[in-house]
Amino acid sequence: MDYIVFDLEWNQGIAGKRESSHEEIPFEIIEIGAIKLDEHKNIIGQFQKIIKPSIYKKMPDIIEDMLHVNMKELRSGDPFQEVVEEFFAWCGEDFIFCSWGSLDLLELQRNMKYYQMPALATGPICFLDIQKLFGIAFENKKVGRTLEYAVDSLQIEKDIPFHRAFSDAYYTALVLQKIPPDIEEYCSYDTYQLPKSKKEEIHKVFPSYSKYISRSFPDKGKAMEDREVLSTRCYICDKAARKKIRWFTPNGKHYYSVSYCEKHGYLKGKIRIRKNVCDPESVFVIKTMKLISKEDVDKIIEKKEHARIQRQIRRRHDREKK
User: Fold this and answer.
1) Nearest to 240 by CA among 230, 253, 250, 249
2) Of 15, 60, 63, 188, which is the most buried if we count CB atoms within 10 A?
3) CA–CA separation, 216 vs 193, rounded Å?
4) pLDDT in tens, 231-268
């Protein structure tokens, strides 16, 4: 299996201008850069293409200054469909996408949908988020470091400028070469396309936590009625864990719970409710389960109590306004 490390640059409408109202495609891809590595992480190929804009015909000054590219150069590029088809042909058959952060796959698929190209997949796409893997491997946590920070931290030579698609893909590939193989187990899932049914939902067990990605629900209420969403199985032994703190929310978007497995101890559950990108009227759930200490349990109890007090304050304030 090859690694396809890719980066996109995109343009957007100028604030306050009429052309900035393209809700279907808020970011138009103007460049694709990529590096191909073999299974041993040796660099075996490269890809770089400029894309001719067809939506946003002007470029905000801040983007032009950052990318060091202007509209004259972009107009000499090739159409989006041609470049993407050439890119996929270059990728080959057996590969995994890799990128710095999670936005590139989302915007690639959104642009493809706008141009009525076939979907990349029928459900979530497994990929490697090198930004996340860098944090896990070298800082023992998930943290949103910049690519240049990672390059400096790993003492990688900076021989070409940052902030172009090819150069950022190149540096991301060099960071990937430093990632220990066992850390790659912490793959990510792009959720532009959601599971179409309960049977297709994602259940993934990582070395230190588990992740569940649901199908689409019409609203948050329906999602929080679903048995699988609310379940609190231990991800190590797959047995039901007894709830110590039932699901609660401090903000209406994140829900927390604490359960206890007789064999493995306390488990923290976290549910995130997210809008379906392809259908903003519906939602889906990302749930994680993780072993925690008794001290962590106490912190969640404090969080629940704080949320209860805040609800009381809001209710009192609402009554006084009437």
Assistant:
1) 230
2) 188
3) 10
4) 999 999 999 999 999 999 998 889 999 999 999 999 99
To the question of pTM greater than 0.70 for the whole model, the response is yes
Per DSSP, 233 falls in state: B
Query: Burial, 107: exposed, middle or buried (Cβ in 10 Å; 0-12, 13-18, 19+)?
Result: middle
CB count within 10 Å of CB 47 equals 19
Count of beta carbons in the 10 Å neighbourhood of residue 101: 17
DSSP string over 160-218: S-SSSHHHHHHHHHHHHHHS-GGGGGS-EEE-SS--SSGGG-EEEE-SS-EEEE---BS
Strand pairing partners for 54?
none
220 vs 274: CA distance, rounded Å: 9
Instruction: Tell me how far apart the alpha carbons of residues 39 and 8 are, in angstroms, rounded to a whole number.
Output: 23
